[in-house]
Each structure stands twice: as C-alpha cells, then as structure tokens.
Amino acid sequence: MIVAGILTPIEDLLTNVLEWLHTGPGLPWAWSIVALTVIVRMLLVPLTVRQVHSMQNLQAHAPEMKAIQQRYKHDRQKQNEELMKFYRENKINPASSCLPILFQIPIFIALFYVLKDFEKEIIQPTSKYAGDSLEWFSLVDITEPTRHGWGPLLLVIYVASQLSSSYFMSTTMQPAQRVLLMVLPIVFIPFIISFPSGLMIYWLTTNLWTTGQGLITRRLMPKRPPPEKRSSRTPSKDAPPQLAQAKGGGGRAQSKRTEKQVVAGPPRRVKRKRGGPRR
C-alpha cells in the first residue's frame, strides 16, 4: 500500500524503539507500548503548550469573534474574510489547537502496521524473543484484535478516556463542533474493535495523558488577560503618539483649560435691575 510505503521510516523507528525498551530496561512488550506512548507525548509537549496558549487566546477573544459572526451572519463570505482579518490582527492561529492530534495520526497508523505483523516479523519462534509474553495485565494480547478476551473492557475504558480528553480539548469550540468531537469515539467503535489490542493500549495511554495534562495545565498555566475593550475614540495601535495623545487626552486637556480659565478669571458680577415702577 502507498500509505504503508510512506510510513515505512516511522514503522522502522517505532520497531527499534519497542525493541530497545524491551531489551534495555527489560519492559514487557505491552508496557513497552505504554513507555513509547509517554515518549511520544513528551516530545509533543512544546506543541501542547502552544495549543493551550492558542485555546486561551481564542477564549479571550470569543466575544469579539461572536460579534463579527452576528454582524455578518447573512454574508458567509464576508464573515470569513472578517474573521481571517481578525485572526491576523490578533495573532490567532485556530489550527494550532489541532497540531498534537495531526502529529499523532502518522504514528498511530504506523504502529498499526507494526503490530499487524508483530509476531511474524519480530517475534519469531527461533529468535531471541521467543517465549516472551505479549499479554497486558493478563487481559489482552497486544497482537490480537480488541474484541477478543477482555478487549471490550479495554474498549469501554478507551471511550471514557476519549470523551474526557475531548472535553478538555474542546472547551473553546463551537457547540456543534464540540458535540461532533464527543460523538466520534462512539462512532469509531465498529472500526477499532478489529484493531490490535496493542494499538488500543497506545490510544488509551495517550488519552489518559491528555486528561491529566488538561487538569495540570488548567491549574498551572496562567490565564491570558482579556483583550482591551476598544471604542470609536480609542486610537489604533499603529497610530503615531501625537495622534494618540490628541485622541486619548484631548478631552482631558480641554477640560483642564476650561477649568483654568474659570479659576483664573475675575468673579462675574451680576447687576441687579432696579426695582419696578413705584406704586
């Protein structure tokens, strides 16, 4: 297959890492997959930090974006143009929130091909790995489909972990997009039930990592301050200082001048009119 050919370098890398984790630290094959998942997620930490900042930035500007959508709700093209302009002016990259997922997709597919022929290509009867256990907690065999043995229980835990990780990843999304992201794990069940259990262990571990990471970042990551509220009298960021001073301080300067004139001038005397005609 073309996809398998493109992902061959990643397959070779994953195979070498799994073999090193098994022979070096001496981890069982199933726990080597868990350790591989942790390594992959640690390498994605910079992207994850960028993802969190992007989500916070989107959340801070959500009212302004909603106002733009309401203003041009009858003109979809104009709405998209104004949103793109708003993204550029405020340095917002909506796609950065999806980067960790996009980088994991090739690894996920490559690991599928590695585990698909794991026993034939790596676990040979005459090799040094013969007799090594492929089981995880004595529940599943990493090369067997997920529907075998205790695999359905693993599948239930996977769906729960996927829903929790999707919840933390979709806090700034539109309601329709958030519902779609929450429904996808259930829709994928008929397909992933035939995947090797080792692949399910990988995805389950990465979901648990995402959930824990979401809880930690919510506590430790400082929230960005909300954007400054702007009005028609607020000078633009690129305006020259003189113009900004004229716009921002014109009213105050004028009031001070008026106040000085009132204080400095002599008191105003009001002449009383003399009384009316005598009775």
Task: Please describe what this structure looks like.
- With 279 residues, this protein is mainly alpha-helical.
- The protein has one domain (2-123, 134-220).
- It contains 13 helices and two strands; from the N terminus they run H-H-H-H-H-H-H-H-E-E-H-H-H-H-H.
- It has helices at residues 2-6, 8-23, 29-43, 45-60, 62-71, 76-89, 99-116, 118-121, 151-169, 175-187, 189-192, 197-220, 241-264; strands at residues 135-136, 140-141.
- Strands 1-2 form a two-stranded antiparallel sheet.
- Helix 2 (8-23) crosses helix 3 (29-43).
- The chain is elongated.
- It starts with a helix and ends in a 15-residue tail after the last helix.
- The relative contact order is 0.10.
End-to-end C-alpha gap: 120 Å
Number of strands: 2
The parts where pLDDT drops under 50 for at least 5 residues are 250-264
Task: Strand order, main sheet: write it out.
Answer: 1-2
Determine the strand fraction and express it as a percent band: under 5%
Query: What is the H-and-E element order?
Result: HHHHHHHHEEHHHHH
Helix content: 55-70%
Query: What's the total helix number?
Result: 13
Mean pLDDT: 75
Main sheet characteristics? 2 strands, antiparallel
Rounded radius of gyration (Å): 32 Å
Classify the secondary structure makeup into a structural class.
Answer: mainly alpha
Shape: elongated
Overall number of structural domains: 1
